[in-house]
């Protein structure tokens, strides 16, 4: 009886080792870790926004529309529950990505407005905040790239045979990835015209 039980357990362990179950565990944890880093960098950016808005407000108070857009975009980002489950829900992931893109756009407009105020550009606090924001944007790009790679590895494991059979049994599904917001716009080559 013990020998049969041992044989069945050995066979079960051998089947599990070749079915990809451990691969799913490993790659899922890598995706979660990469996602946590993405969230960490987005939170860092969101934390910089109030200081940046207040600094600009002191110099460019009549640019209220831009300042309001930045504040509203930050509120929209803060209103999305960024939980680990977000990466398992493509619609929630898309809403998160859209809110982050809105904040990026609003911050870009804020920095363009700042260009019109030489005193603001000369302010040390503004320059420091601007440098921190630029550094954070670079960190976001790196974190997103790591997340994209982790999701790629995970999704390949979920979709390849025989792992896909195990994925179906245990409910592992393909995870959403970051996408370009407007693929049509970037697929069109820009027109360059030189003066005659």
Would you give an account of this structure?
This protein has 196 residues and is mainly α. The protein has a single domain, classed as de novo design (two linked rop proteins). It is built from 8 helices and no strands. The protein has helices at residues 2-19, 21-59, 64-78, 90-114, 118-122, 124-159, 163-170, 183-187. Helix 2 runs antiparallel to helix 6 (124-159) and helix 3 (64-78) runs antiparallel to helix 4. It is elongated, with a radius of gyration of 24 Å. It starts with a helix and ends in a 9-residue tail after the last helix. The model has no long low-confidence stretch (mean pLDDT 84).
User: Helix segment count?
Assistant: 8
- The helix content is over 70%
Beta fraction: under 5%
Oligomer: single chain
Main β sheet profile: none
Domain module count: 1
| SSE sequence, one letter per element | HHHHHHHH
Distance between the termini: 93 Å
Q: Could you say which overall geometry the principal axes of the C-alpha atoms support?
A: elongated
Mean pLDDT: 84
CATH architecture: Up-down Bundle
* Low-confidence regions: none
Short description:
With 196 residues, the protein is mostly helical.
List the helices and strands and how they pair.
Elements: H1 2-19, H2 21-59, H3 64-78, H4 90-114, H5 118-122, H6 124-159, H7 163-170, H8 183-187
Helix pairs in contact: 2-3, 2-4, 2-6, 3-4
Descriptive terms for the model:
77% helix, mainly alpha, de novo design (two linked rop proteins), 196 residues
């Amino acid at each position: 009886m013990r020998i049969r039980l041992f044989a069945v357990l050995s066979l079960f362990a051998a089947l599990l080792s070749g079915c990809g179950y451990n691969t799913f565990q490993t790659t899922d944890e890598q995706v979660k870790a990469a996602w946590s880093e993405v969230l960490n960098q987005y939170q860092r950016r969101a934390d910089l926004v109030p200081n940046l808005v207040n600094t600009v407000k002191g110099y460019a108070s009549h640019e209220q529309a831009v300042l309001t857009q930045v504040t509203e975009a930050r509120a929209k980002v803060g209103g999305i529950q960024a939980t680990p489950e977000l990466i398992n829900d493509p619609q929630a992931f898309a809403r998160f990505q859209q809110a982050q893109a809105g904040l990026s756009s609003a911050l870009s407009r804020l920095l363009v407005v700042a260009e019109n105020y030489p005193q603001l550009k000369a302010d040390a606090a503004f320059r420091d905040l601007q440098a921190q924001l630029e550094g954070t944007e670079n960190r976001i790009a790196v974190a997103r790239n790591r997340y994209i790679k982790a999701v790629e590895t995970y999704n390949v494991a979920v979709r390849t045979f025989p792992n896909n059979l195990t994925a179906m049994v245990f409910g592992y599904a393909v995870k959403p990835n970051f996408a370009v917001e407007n693929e049509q716009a970037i697929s069109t080559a820009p027109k360059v015209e030189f003066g005659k």
